[in-house]
Amino acid sequence: MLTPPLSRDVAREFAIKWQGAKDERSEAESFWNDFFRRLCGIDDTKLAGIEFQYAVTSSTSGNKNWIDVYWKNVAIIEHKSRGEDLDKAELQARGYLRSLPPGYRPRTIIISDFANFRLIDVQLNRTHDFLLKDLPENIHRFSNIIAGSKPSYLQDEISVDQQAAQLMANLYLELEANDYEGHETSVFLIRLLFLLFGDDTKMWEHNIVKKLLLSTKEDGSDVGSTINELFKTLNTPESQRLKDGPFNNFPYVNGGIFAEDIGEIQFTKRMRVALINAANYDWSTINPTIFGALFQLIKSKEERAALGEHYTSEQNINKIIYPLFLDSLQQRLSDSWDNKKSLKDLRKDLGKIKIFDPACGCGNFLVVAYRHLRQLELELTARLQELDGKSEDLGLDGTFGLAIGLHQFFGIEILEWPSQVARIALFLTDHQENIKLEKITGAAPNRFPIRDSAKIINGNALIVDWDREVGINEHTYILGNPPFIGARLQSEKQKTETLEVWRNIEKAGNLDYVSNWFLKAARAIQGRNSKAAFVSTNSISQGEQPPIMWPAIYDCGVHINFAHRTFSWSNESAGQAIVHVVIIGLSAETGSGVYPIWTYETVKSEPTKMTAKNINPYLVDGPDVLVSSRRTPLNPDTQPLLYGSQPNDGGAISDISPEEAATIRKVDKIAAKYLKRIVGARELIHDEERWCLWLTEVSPAEIRQSKELSRRVALVKKTRESSERKVTQELAATPHLFGFISHPKGRYLAVPRHSSEERKYVPIAFFDDNTICTDAVSIVPNASLETFSLMCSSAFNIWNKAVSGRIKNDTRISGGITYNNFPFPNLNKGQQEILEEAATEVLNTREQFGKVSLADLYSEISMPKPLQAVHYKLDQAVLRILGINANATEPDILAALLMRYSELQDSKIF
C-alpha cells in the first residue's frame, strides 16, 4: 500500500478508461482491481487485506450474504450496475456493516455504480457524492481513507468547511466595509446560512435561492429589497400570502428565524458578487459542528486569520459524550437487538432524555450529542422494521414518529452571536438527520413550520437558574466546555461571580473560573440520579484547587464516575489553540465500584482505558484524600525545607553581574571580600553566574571606607524607605543586610521553587555556604544523600506535578504543599545505604559532563544516557522502599503515594 497522496493524473486516466463501464457482474471486479493497482499501488490485494465476495451472516435473518469488496480495517465497498439506486445500495451496505463482528467494522462505506461514487464516514456520519469524471478532484478523500489517519482526515474536513466559512467571511467583510455591523447584520447572516443550506438539502426546490439571487441586478441595487421580501414571506403562513406572490414556492418556516423585522441592507456590486460566490458553494455537506465555530470567527477582526483555531474536534467531544450516556445506550440497544418490546421501550426512553450544555458557545457539544442520538434511533428504527416490517405502531408517518427531538436540547450562552449560531446549527443537523431517516424508512418529518426547536438561552450561566430553565431530572445529562480562565486572570466581574457561586467557601478566590460550572452542576444533579461531565484545564485536579473545591462537591452527594487524565485539547489546523485539559464526569448515582479512567503516556498520545474502584480529585484510583498546606513535614523525622534568603533590595546588593564583580575586585578591595555567588531558580537550573554582596559580618567602618559598599547600601536604604509596605520600610534600618536571611552553615540542598512541567525530575543540587540562595529557591540545611535521592526521584516529581500549584504550566514546589505532605519513609540502615549509593552515582555522573547545566542534563530531549541509567536505578530503589511495584505507571505511583499519605495524615477523608 502506498502512502498518500494519490495521483490526480492517474485518477484522470482511470476515469477516462472506465467511463463506459456499466455491468456489475462482468466489470466490477476488474474496475476495483484496476483501482487498487493503478491508484493505490496495491498489486497483491490479499496481502493488503482486500477480499472480493466476502461472506457475512446477516445479524437479522441469519442468511449468508456477500460483501462485494471487504477491505479489512479500511472499507466496505458495495458496487452496482450503472444507474441503480445508490440509496438502496447504502442501506444494504449498512446492513453488512452491522452484521460484521465489532472488531471487523471499518469506518468507511464506499458505494459505486461506475458513474458515481459515494463515500460514507460511518463514525462522523459524513457523506460525499461525486461523479467518476470528478475523481481527480476527490482522490484526496481516498488518500485519507487508505492512510487511516485521523488527523489528516480531520484536516480535510476542516479545510472543506473553511472554504464555506471563508465565503461567509468575505461577505461579512463587504458588509462591514459598508458600515453594516451589529445585531441586525448577525441576524442577516444567520438567515442567509439557513437559506443556502436549505437550497442544497431538499428543504425546497433545489437552487431556487441561488436562481433568485442571480436574477437580481448586477449593481446590487435590488438585492436587499429582494432578500427582505423573501424573509417576510418565509415568516408568513401560506394562507395569509398573496395568491400570486413571487415566493410562494417557499414553505412557511416560522420558529423565530425570520420573525424579527430587520432593516434592509443596501447592496453594492461587490457585496452582490460576494453573496453570489457564497450561493454557488455546495452547502449540503457542511458539518454544523465545525461550521458553527468557524462561522463565529467571522465576527472577530483579531481572529479572521486563524479560522479553525477554536474548532473542537468531534473526537474530543466524544470523549465526554460516550461515557456520559452513549455507551450505556448503545449497550442497551445491543442487549435489546432481538427483542421488539425492549427496543420499543428504549425508543420511549430516548424521548425522555435531556441534554444540557450550560456554556454552549456555538452548540458543538449539543450538535454532536443530537447526531449520535438520532443515529442510535435510526439504527433502532431500522432494526424494528427488520423484525416487524414497516408496522404502523412505529409511528413513522413523517410528521411525529421520532422519539428524539430538538426540544430535548438546552443551552446557555452569554454572547448573542454564538447563541444564534447554536440554534441554527441544531436545526441544520436535524435536517441532515431527517434526510438519512428518509433513506431508511422512506419518510421523514416535515419540519415546516418549525415547532420543535432547542432552547438556547442568551444569558449568564452562573446567574441563570438551571433547574428552572431545563427541569433537571434523572434523564438529564449536563455537559460542555466551560471557559478556561485562571484565578489570577479573571476580571473583577468574574471574580465576584466566582465568590458568589462558592459563597462561604474558604480561599474560593484561588479557583479557576471553570470550577463554577462543576459546583453548579453538582448542586443541579444532587439527589436526582443524573450526570454531568465537563472539560477543564488540568489545574483543577492539581495543587491548591482540589482541597478548596472538592469538599463542597462531595457535600452534594456527588462523586467522579469517569475521567480523562491530562491530554492536549486541540484541533489539527494551523494556528491551533492548545490547552492541557482533563475531563471529569460527575454522578449522583450510587457508586458501582468500577469507573473508567483514560490515561495518556504523553499529552498528545492516544488514551488507554483503565478501571478504578474510586476516582479521586487527582484523577487516580485511590482514596478521596485532599492534600492541604501544612507547616511541618508529614513524617516528623524528615529534614525541613526552608525558604532561601530574600534580598528585598531592588537588586543593589543581590544582582551583580560577572562583569561588575570583576570590576569590584579590581577597584574596591573591601567590597571584594564580601562578594559571594548567589543562586536563584534561574541560576540553579541554567548555571548562570550572578554575584551578591553578603554583608552579615561587615563593619560600619568598612561600609564608610568603601565607595562601592556605601553607594549600594545607600541605594538599598532609599528603595526600602520608598516602599508602601511598612515591613519593608522597617528594613531600611539595616540596609546592608538581606530582608530575610536563612543561609545555613555547611552544605545544603537547593530546590527551585518552580520547575518545568516537562521535566521527569526536579533539578536539585548541593551547595556549600559560600553560595547564597535567594527566595526563588528553597533549601534543606545539612541535607542527607537520602533526602537528595528521594527528592531527585521520579516518584517525588509525580507527587509534585499532582499536588503543587502552578505558574503557567510550571510546577510551584512549595514547602507547605509539596514537600511537607510527601510521605517520606522511615529508613532503616540498609535503605539509607542504598539511597546514599544511588545519590552518589547520580552526582558523580553529573560531574562527568562538566559545566553542562541542569536544564540540559534534565531536558526531556537531551538527558544523557548515562544519567538516565543511574536515575533509573535510583527510581527503582525509591519505589522498592516506598512499597510500590517497580513497573508501576505514573497514575499507579501517584495512587500509592496518596494512599500512604492518607495513612499518615490525620485530616478529613471524604
Explain what the structure shows:
- The chain is an alpha/beta fold and 910 residues long.
- The protein folds into five domains: 8-148, tt1808, chain A, CATH 3.90.1570; 157-286, no CATH class; 293-310 and 343-481, no CATH class; 489-621, no CATH class; 642-904, no CATH class.
- Helix content is 42%, strand content 14%.
- The protein is built from 31 helices and 25 strands.
- The strands form five sheets. Strands 9-8-7-10-11-13-12-14-15 form a nine-stranded mixed β-sheet, sandwiched between helices.
- α13 (364-388) links the parallel β7 (354-357) and β8 (409-413).
- α11 runs parallel beside α13 (364-388) and α28 runs antiparallel to α30 (865-882).
- The two termini are 55 Å apart.
Report how far apart the termini are. Answer: 55 Å
Helical/strand content category: alpha/beta
Strand order of the largest sheet: 9-8-7-10-11-13-12-14-15
How does the major sheet shape up?
9 strands, mixed
Fraction of residues in helix: 40-55%
**How many beta-strand runs?**
25
Number of helices, where a helix is a run of at least 4 consecutive DSSP H or I residues: 31
> Cα-atom Rg, whole angstroms?
34 Å
List the quaternary state of the chains.
single chain
Which residues sit in consecutive blocks of at least 5 with pLDDT less than 50? 148-160, 301-310, 391-400, 571-576
